[in-house]
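Blinded run. Sample ID left blank on purpose so nobody reads anything into the name before looking at the predicted structure. Input follows.
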Amino acid sequence: MYIWAMSELHKKYIEETISMATANIDENGGPFGAIVVLDGEIIGRGVNKVTSHNDPTAHAEVMAIRDACQQLDTFKLEEAVIYTSCEPCPMCLSAIYWARIKTIYYAAQNTDAAKAGFDDSYIYEEIRLPLEKRSIPAIRIDHDDAFKPFQTWIFMEGKIDY
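Blinded prediction complete.
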């Protein structure tokens, strides 16, 4: 009985993200939707707002995480799960890890997104390359105080670790 109930619940949440993603297209957003769920309750919602907000980080998963964190007044979502209409891109996957979300459930695969023009495979390829071979140069500037912010952090009392 429990397995059936969980699968029905997963289906319900995934259907919600697909519905959000589809409706978002009419709002001049991208075809992506996500929800963050904690203890069976939706605590965060997000749709892709990259073009409507002129913000390349406004992906559905990031927006849902931001919403959930604001709702709970925390930056840790350790017991939460995320449902998303499509397999997360590298940026969203990183945000999910930083938020410490425990499970990702998704509908469409990244290959499906690529067929619609949302191909992030080049980012995965770039990450694997040494810095000097990437298409966007990353140039370190040597400076005597480069470690100063970290040194200050190390000795700060009362800091909030994350």
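Unblinding after everyone has recorded impressions. DSSP finds seven helices and four strands in the chain.
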